[in-house]
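Action item from last week, closing it out:
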Amino acid sequence: MQNPHDPYLALRFRDFRFLLVGIFFAGLGSQMITVAIGWELYIRTGSALALGIVGLVQVVPVFILSLPAGQFIDRFNRKRIVIWAQLVLMLCSLGLTVLSFTHGSLLLVYACLLIYGCAVAFDSPASAILVAQIV
């Protein structure tokens, strides 16, 4: 006799629930930053090119660092990689907040977004692998 499939079995693990909630809030924060930066830069510059550069600066590090990040994630502790990547993402968010309040240079905004993109290159695959590892 076969056991019935339980689609909520993974949610019975405390560590998985914590990871799921953390990934949800990290994704929500990331989307909020994307909208806020796009909105602010468009208000400040009135240029669609400035918005395009925002996307470019965030995506290029992911393309460049995908393979090295994958190898790094496979060799070292994934939990620590996620924690460090989230710490860098938090610091970049704080930096963008300060630059927003002080109307800082666009070059500094793009630098923060570049670092943000580098952290995402490590955070996204490590978080995805942690889900399977925890369950």
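Closing note: The chain has a mean pLDDT of 88.
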